Amino acid sequence: MKKLLLITFLLLSISSANAQKIQNSSYSTIGYIKIDGTIQNSSYSTVGHIKSDGTIQNSSYSTIGHIKDDGTIQNSSYSTVGHVKSNGTIQNSSYSTIGYIKDNGTVQNSSYSTIGYAKGIKREWAAVYFFFFRFN
User: Fold this and answer.
1) How far apart are CA 8 and CA 4, in angstroms?
2) In a domain, 12, yes or no
3) Helices (H), the chain
4) Cβ(46)–Cβ(60) under 8 Å?
5) pLDDT, tens digit only, all 136 positions of the chain
6) pTM (2 decimals)?
7) Which of 17, 29, 51, 67 has the CB geometry, 3.0–4.6 Å to 55, for a possible disulfide?
8) Could you tell me the CATH number of the domain that includes residue 67?
9) Residue span of the structural domain in which 123 resides
10) How far is it, in rounded angstroms, from Cα 87 to Cα 94?
11) Number of structural domains in the chain
């Protein structure tokens, strides 16, 4: 029994070793984004993917959006839903500021209230998670 628990713990540790935590404002872990773009919920179930070409997919691999090289976020029909600026400002399709992602991974709404943390996660990926698409 002890060996089974140890093996399970080691496997979970290895599978999450390449994942960065997504936390809410209370520092509770609400998900993970792995270095390959796999998005997981807090139970490690895969809920989405961000591919190397910027394609955003749901858990069934259906395309739900795109990240362009200039930080533009698009839906599956290639309509712009928002922008991620190099300074961390997050804007909607009308260029109104809807939030910020700080260099340290702190995610804030437009009123500068902290809504979560995405330390070590690319800004565009964090913006996709917190502002533009829902992964359940």
Assistant:
1) 6
2) no
3) 2-16, 123-127
4) no
5) 666 544 555 455 544 457 899 999 999 999 999 999 999 999 999 999 999 999 999 999 999 999 999 999 999 999 999 999 999 999 999 999 999 999 999 999 999 999 999 999 999 999 999 999 998 7
6) 0.85
7) 51
8) 2.40.160.200
9) 19-132
10) 18
11) 1
